[in-house]
Amino acid sequence: MLRLTRLLDTPRDIPVLTPLIRREILYRLLQGPQGYRLYEITLANSQTHRVSQAIIWLNQHFNQPLRIEDLAREVHLSTSSLHHRFKAMTSMSPLQYQKQLRLQEVRRLMLNEGLEAAMAGYRVGYESPSQFSREYSRLYGAPPVRDLVRLRETVL
Fold first, then answer.
1. How far apart are CA 97 and CA 101, in angstroms?
2. Splitting the chain (156 residues) into consecutive groups of 10 residues, what average pLDDT does each group show?
3. Where do the structural domains in the chain lie, given as residue ranges?
4. DSSP class of residue 97?
5. Distances in Å between the alpha carbon of 10 and those of 6, 15, 20, 133, 145?
6. Inter-residue contact 40 to 16 (CB < 8 Å)
């Protein structure tokens, strides 16, 4: 980077040397300890990039019903590739990821916006109050109302 900056002192060298210096910077980055990750990220059509697109899609649509086949089609992966690669990147399946997003949003809605548990669950996409309560308890160790009381006590 310093050599690239020093080219400002000799403007006539910029068109010839800039591409060479940029290429060296890229080479050194790719040869570094995270080079393979950088390479994967830069490939717009790589499976890693496609899984990243699936994560973005889930973050934006977590409150909608999820069919893995539709998500796989959306990011141009087979269902099995999406599942395998998603789990390798996030340590959870796409459905588990969606569930965690929903439950985090429910907790935020109840704490920050004062919504009742059932309404918050419905807003993030849960159709069954009992399923919502079960999954919430499994993740946070207590039903929603009891968890909120515990959270508020720890803050005070």
1. 6
2. 91 94 90 82 74 94 95 94 93 96 96 93 94 95 93 80
3. 2-40, 43-92, 97-155
4. H
5. 8, 10, 15, 68, 68
6. no
